[in-house]
Input
Amino acid sequence: MKPSASRFAKEIEMTSGEAFTLGNAFRQYFEIVPAVSDALKDEVYRIRHQVYCEDLKFEPTRPDGREVDEHDPHSLHILICSSKTKRFVGCTRIIRPRPGNPHDLLPFEKACAATLDRSVVDPAKLARCSIGEVSRLAVVADYRRRKGESNVAMGISEADFGTPLQPRFPFIPIGLYLATTELARLNGVETVFVLTEERLASHFDKLGFNLQYIGRPIEHHGVRVPSMMSVSSVIRNMRTNLQSLYRTIAADIARGLEQKEAEEP
Output
């Protein structure tokens, strides 16, 4: 029987001693940066172009090397940066319904209109200001080069947690998901939807994100399943081993937002 992802995460802390936390380890290698300026958003769009247009060819290449769509103006954007090289290596966003348009649908609502189980949740009955959709998770090629991952924007597997003797932790994908959780909380988004691979959703569920499937899979650059999570529930029931990581990421986001406020006239 394979050890679970949560078991490996716990073994990392036990193996490394009491002083070790996932938050401290994350800080040594990465930093979360809220993309709140035009320059930072430009970094987001360039990473997305590398991954979705050049590597995966899911989208057409653009002359300016930036992958941008109609949802970006009303989305919340996040970057992850290498602490050592100061290079941005990944990104994601939370799409929000267009302000002032109660009938504006999130992308998954359109793509999954015929497959959603509305006995589980009917997004149309939720306050539009309280929902969002995580999308465009992307990690640059040299940070996701692994057998079988040339055709995915971001992956996670049991191998990312190493072995009991050599434990590891997938800081980039987990860091980005925790960052979206905190950014959603700060912006009053309580229900987050995601359209993703079932395998990836399963791994996040094992780590305590409690993703709930809300409909049948669809074909969208591969088989994708719609799911949702409650932001307050994820935070309230977060596994002990992830709490220090979440605090570190929340501090990164707070610092980035404070810097933005300080720069404004």
Q: What stands out?
A: The CA atoms of residues 46 and 66 lie 5 Å apart. The longest strand covers residues 131-139. Helices lie at 5-16, 22-29, 38-55, 107-111, 171-186, 198-209, 231-236, 240-263.
